[in-house]
Amino acid sequence: MKRLSERVFSTGILNPNLRVFDVIMRTEFGTSYNSYVVRGSEATAVIDSAHPRFAALYAEELEAALGGAAPAYLIVNHTEPDHSGCIAQMLERWPALTIVTNSVAAKNLRNIVNRDDLPLHIVQDGASLSLGDRTLLFRLAPFLHWPDTMFTYLPEEQTLFPCDVFGCHYCEPGVLDTHIAYPADYETSLRYYYDCIFGPFPGFVQKGLAKLADWEIQRICPSHGPVLTKGCRLEAALSAYAAWSAPEPRNAKRIPLFYCTAYGNTRRLAQAIRNGILSIFPDADAPLLDLSDEDPDAMGQRLNESDAFLLGTPTINRDAPPPLWNLLARADAVNLAKRPAAVFGSFGWSGEGPGHIALRLQMLKCAAFAEPHRVCLVPSAADLEAARDFGAAFAAAIK
Ligand code: FEO
Predict the structure, then answer these.
(1) Distance from the CA of 53 to the center of ligand 1, in angstroms?
(2) DSSP secondary structure string, 369-398?
(3) Which residues sit with their C-beta closer than 6 Å to ligand 1?
(4) Residue 195, Cα to own-chain centre: how many angstroms?
């Protein structure tokens, strides 16, 4: 437990040994599950809870922060279980506790706590809650990063509780940004967290930031990582989120061609298709990217930032080889819908690879162009001309 002010306490649980969060994120710097207590003159509120794995430790931290008071309210900014996992035990400990949240979160909570009689107080965008000499204001911030997310603000202390926003998987005992011992690691973590959690929702990040514009903020208390303070890292975090979520001005279309090739045949097709694309878009950024040589994360980023893309695959043992699937495992399924895409490849025997990849693109709801362009073994001059035409037709279709 850490006292942030006379009335605000952090009850963050440190988990320095965590190395994978929610299956998909590397957490080389561990994480913390932050929860906060605000003690008003008339009532005390707890803001978010903790991961259920740490329920016993969280209970100790919380009791210490409460100083013998029974909380009147639990504010649920977001229902992902790393912040809602201890609600059931809190309701057992304090049966009079009222859960304050929005209607979207309430639906989830009923399925997390599995009680039909949850003591809920549903708030709308712009609502407030008095704790006596302290007030909590609420603004909905959907898709940051779940549909249920909301911001809580304590105006008397100009303190924002933004849930996961401005957080990161980084663990140090100091709690405050002024105590960060490894700033480069913290900054790496902040960016990686943004990319993984908020990268798919840049428009919602912009909307969320706009909702903060008229709040003076001296302190940001996120759900993971250090508390940010004005004059230290708070301003930089706000600016970084604004910059990372801003639409990027683009001069040329980005049309990467990702491929794998065992004997160079699929590469030859890729080169011919690229020539066709350049015949329509001479300035296109259309790199040929051999997935066997490239960094998988960088390729995933190129895929997700493309205007359109092509995937070239051989067929090995009746399927596309792992580098293609590794790339598609990094696909941003939220934003790739309707993205123009095409598939091609050389094959030797049965040639299932391109068809399998096309099925995955269908599942991602990409705008698939034509049937996969397939050639048996070594492309002839006529095959290469046809591949060039395929590329030109694909480019013309997205013009
Ligand atoms: Fe940290 Fe989205 O939960």
Answers:
(1) 15
(2) -SS-EEEESS--HHHHHHHHHHHHHHHHHH
(3) 78, 80, 82-83, 145, 164, 223-224
(4) 6
Angstrom distance (rounded) from CA 327 to CA 297: 8
Residue-level length of the chain: 399
Please give the structure tokens belonging to residue 33: 């599950």
Could you tell me if 319 and 356 are in contact, meaning their C-beta atoms sit under 8 angstroms apart? Answer: yes
Per-domain residue ranges of the chain: 2-245, 257-394
Tokens of 213: 């514009």
Superfamily for the 2-245 domain: Ribonuclease Z/Hydroxyacylglutathione hydrolase-like (3.60.15.10)
Structure tokens that stand for 359 in this block: 């099925």
Q: What is the pLDDT along the chain (399 residues), one digit of tens a residue?
A: 899 999 999 998 999 999 999 888 999 999 999 999 999 999 999 999 999 999 999 999 999 999 999 999 999 999 999 999 999 999 999 999 999 999 999 999 999 999 889 999 999 999 999 999 999 999 999 999 999 999 999 999 999 999 999 999 999 999 999 999 999 999 999 999 999 999 999 999 999 999 999 999 999 999 999 999 999 999 999 999 999 999 988 889 999 999 999 999 999 999 999 999 999 999 999 999 999 999 999 999 999 999 999 999 999 999 999 999 999 999 999 999 999 999 999 999 999 999 999 999 999 999 999 999 999 999 999 999 999 999 999 999 997
* Cα 47 to ligand 1 centroid, rounded to whole Å: 13
> Using N-to-C axis directions, what is the helix angle for 353-363 and 322-329, rounded to 10°?
10
Of 18, 28, 119, 13, nearest in space to 61 by CA: 13
CATH number of 257-394: 3.40.50.360
- The residue whose C-alpha atom lies closest to atom 3 belonging to ligand 1 is 80
